[in-house]
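quick one, 336 residues, struct below
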Amino acid sequence: MNQPRPLVPSRFVRPSIPRPGGGRDRAALVREAYEAIAQGSRSFALASKLFDRPTRERVWMLYAWCRRCDDLADAQDLGGELGDQAGIEDRVQAIKVLTRRALEGGATADPAFDALGQVAGEAGITLDMANEVIAGFAMDANGFSPASEKELMRYCYHVAGAVGVLMARVMFAPNDSFIYDRACDLGLAFQLANIARDLVEDARAGRCYLPEDWLAEAGLTCENYADEENRFALAAVSARLVDRMEMYEAASRLGAKHLRFRQRWAVLTAARIYGAIGRKVRARGQLAWDTRTYVTLPEKLWHVAAAFGEALTRRAPEPEQWPPYKREDLRPVAGW
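---
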């Protein structure tokens, strides 16, 4: 059988040389990454400016990859309205391919993935670490809906807890499992706040992140929990999410005290702002989903100042109650 001839003789083909960022200019990657965080999350953008310059640039590049993956998976733009979910499996597969190529030092033609390649080279991010995050998008692609709290927390681990660990990595935090566990706790707290805030919006998109057993206890189902006549019952279930959020938020503070001052300040600012979102959802009760819950700019600036004082004292009280699930309970494979 005749073999197909190559388009170009092999003697003329030069293998590409793996380079962090796919060979793109680092400063350009940083600029584009900042645009992603500035448009995608004003709260994170504000907190990130409190880092020293090298740290915030790495944080921006990691965020850009996370944001781009989320947008690709959900067919949306910078966290906007969910797009048509047809073909989500193919989009998740594309995320896997581009991520692997970026981590191998190849150019991806996508600045966010090239930014991952750049920051991975600087911070030692591996494919296994990135795949922990991508697994969360795969769960959504498979129509994930939790039957229990542990299943919910496993999902939160992949989409946010594992990101928290990567953030600790790009901060060059001490390579200590306790600190990584606390970074994971903060990511879990952020995700629980997001879920509580977006419950009705997610329901309209056909997604349900409330544990089935929690809903059953409240006389609700995934199909009807967002109905207006069920908002009182939904508020009670949402309050359970926020209670859990506060447990993880409190635990995360024990890790922040081991960071350098400006890193500690930035992390505590983000924790305060996202904690405030969750507490506002709980305080608004059944009205929490009539309009979007957010933290105003004056409130954010107050949290910046309060976090400054907290970072100076470097004191973090032991949580009154530790969260029921730890990183080791949620990750599929131990090792980093």
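The domain at 144-336 is CATH 1.10.600.10 (Farnesyl Diphosphate Synthase).
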